[in-house]
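Sample 1 of the test manifest.
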Amino acid sequence: MPSGTTTHQLQPDTWVDAHADYLYNYAVSRVSDSEIAHDLVQETFLAGLGSAKNFKGTASERTWLVAILKRKVIDHYRKINSKKGKAEVRMHYSSQEDSEGNWLEERAADPLSTKEHGVLENEELGQAIQECIAKLPAKQAKVFTLKTIEGQSTEDVCNELGINPSNLWVLIHRARTSLMACLDKNWFGE
Amino acid sequence: MITCEEAAHICTRKQYSEASWKERLQLYLHILICKACASFSRKNTQLTKLCDKAQLQTLSKKEKEHIKKKIQEQS
């Protein structure tokens, strides 16, 4: 791997912990199916490994992985669309004036577009929160995620991480304080 | 009377419904007279709402282990 000129490097060992949740949310918001989203994330990592030599280090690791995921999402929709029978396509093109037909397939919203205001806003919000979480010290991020996003009980989190409840609350408190500052400008309307 | 630091910690626990009624009362009384904590409390509550609204999801630990294993197999 050429070094010196590159600013970013790939560290596949840390991919899952560092990016899996971010990519997963990205995928879920586009395919609306948790199982498919899971598969797409996995395929993204594997494809990333396969083409790691093409990584030039000009973009961050995450940006690069997101770009791969985008292609995976597009491929996913191509695949399911090609399965859905060619008859519908033929009918559509042979009678373009046919306004009686209820060609939902053709009229369905573009799955890659999230123009609906609410969806877009929530997605941006989700990404903003995750980028802020990514800036936290690892332990704070972990505790915050387990407690807030996964909604685990204090006891379970303490057991998993081998800390006591007062440690936990200090970590969460610090995490929340940092997150408030991080999200402040854009998301807290005062 | 509780200190601002105590109030802030109670406020954080309250976001997870893990503050007792007595603590909540102490926090309430503190906020009445402390503008800084009132503002902190408002933001903290808003953060909870933002997190709910974003409907963030995570892959389970098991799923992550599974993906990690796949990555190791290939690399």
